[in-house]
Write the structure tokens for this entry.
Amino acid sequence: MNSWAKKRKLVFFSIIIGFVFLWFFIFIAPNLKVVPTCADRIQNGNETGVDCGGSCSLFCSTQALDLSPVWTRPFKVIPGRYNVVALVENQNTEAAISSISYEFKLYDENNIFVTRRTGKTYILPNNQTAIFEAGLETGDRVVVRSEFSFTETPLWLQTPKFNKGSVSVSSSEIVMKDSFTNPRLTATIRNNGRFSLHNFDVVAILYNEDNNAIAVSATFIEELNETEEYNVFFTWQDPFREEPVRIEILPQVNVFGLNVYQ
């Protein structure tokens, strides 16, 4: 075969290959684009950050406001045994935490370490979370101060679309009796949402006229169906030294445990 025929054949095949590539890039390549995911380490799709925001479950940590500890305090139950509470505020309306580790440390009047307690909690969206630990043993040591800290970096998640009125408390039904003899508190919890709630704590915090917490207690509700009401009871072993002037009832419903994304 002479050189001219070889060149003509080469040109012919080049044209064919060119048409194949052109056809591929016009009709095939657009359909081979990688679908954006929330784990590809690239900001794509409708994400507002790398693998966060938009349709991703992760909330972008750079856009999240820090958690704000309000106070932490130990409360003596009996000599040698204390409950301890930390009140933490989350000002993020669209972000919450499904699980985060924490630590309490208790100290005596000489600021000497007494004991610690660790645990895990969830953080409510746009609300205050009461983190309650009961029955810390201190022996013959008297505790006067507690410290609270989170022991891992928060993993912020976008909150599911749920009815923010899922749990509410009617203040007219909160009744405190016998503060100076045998303190007991009753309240009514009502589910105003569109789905049932399961296995959540309700924490009661009592304040004096200086807005300092003087007593806390917690109870547990296994199930609260739609529009259902439930009477909760809180008691204390020792009489109060002062009359509570303000009472907070805080239902602690984990929005990530509802299994409802409306």
